[in-house]
Design brief:
Strand content: under 5%
CATH class of the largest domain: Mainly Alpha
Number of strands: 0
CATH architecture of the largest domain: Up-down Bundle
Order of helices and strands: HHHHHHHHHHH
Helix content: over 70%
Number of helices: 11
Largest sheet: none
CATH topology of the largest domain: Rhopdopsin 7-helix transmembrane proteins
Shape: globular
């Protein structure tokens, strides 16, 4: 007897929307939204889209839902890109004022370039067999950003000591949640493509992706309700290296006259 997934398909988006609402409350109470406005917008968008999906699937025609789904995937990808840029820019906060104005555009280009490199890799991931041409493109886009999230998480975690960040820093907490959710999503796609299974099992695997997102939301709530540790300064050697890479002559002048960490810090 086939399992009735109707109540599960209703409960999961409701639970996701509730979890996202709690994350927003935690971000607001800790004033973390000021530090990570694009991430806050991303969570807000997730809550709105979950509720909209629930309504549209039950109350609107299939053709309209397909158009909305296309819009949702593209918007979600765009917001993910801004979140990744925001995380990279936030990591550089200790020396950000000493970096040249072109640093942020350079970060945007670097992350976009990483996405372009990942694009052909994501194209090799087998898509669902029932997708239309437009759906294949959106699937490709979605998986590209899933892999990009994993890459960003691995880089931030592996370079945490160099970047003077730890598991109690907001940047790494956000990247950890995004990376965990993306890893589960990629694994499920690989399971789909390498086994012959009944439809029920396929659906359970899809639900596991949603459950991993709920776990991510729970982790973010736990992280944001705890006080963030004071951000460490980069080591003098790391500051000198970053300033030389990003500032050219200006960085050399700053290095000779004294590194930013040696000067009195202004209160936030």
């Amino acid at each position: 007897m086939a399992f009735d997934f109707t109540w599960v398909d209703t409960a999961v988006p409701c639970a996701s929307a509730a979890g996202e609402a709690i994350v927003l409350v935690a971000l607001s109470r800790q004033n973390s939204w000021r530090k990570l406005p694009m991430f806050t917008l991303y969570v807000l968008w997730g809550m709105i889209s979950d509720l909209a999906n629930l309504y549209i699937q039950k109350s609107v025609s299939t053709s309209f839902y397909e158009k909305y789904f296309n819009f949702e995937v593209v918007t979600d990808a765009a917001l993910q890109f801004t979140v990744l840029v925001e995380l990279a820019w936030s990591v550089l906060k200790p020396i950000r004022k000493s970096l040249p104005r072109a640093t942020l555009p350079v970060l945007i280009v670097l992350i976009a370039g990483a996405g372009l490199i990942i694009w052909p890799i994501a194209a090799k991931m087998p898509p669902p067999t029932d997708l239309k041409p437009d759906g294949l493109l959106l699937f490709h886009l979605d998986e590209t950003f899933a892999i990009l999230r994993v890459v960003c998480f691995i880089l931030m975690a592996s370079l945490s000591q160099v970047l003077s960040i730890g598991w109690k820093d907001r940047e790494l907490q956000v990247a950890t949640g995004l990376g965990f959710y993306a890893i589960v999503k990629i694994l499920v796609i690989l399971f789909h493509s390498h086994q012959q299974a009944k439809e029920d099992l396929y659906h359970w695997l899809d639900i596991s992706v949603s459950v991993s997102y709920l776990c991510t939301l729970a982790y973010w709530v736990f992280s944001f309700v705890t006080k963030e540790q004071e951000r460490k300064e980069f080591s003098p050697q790391m500051q000198h290296l970053l300033l030389q890479l990003g500032g050219g002559a200006r960085a050399g002048r700053i290095a000779l006259t004294g590194l930013p960490s040696e000067r009195p810090r202004k209160k936030d």
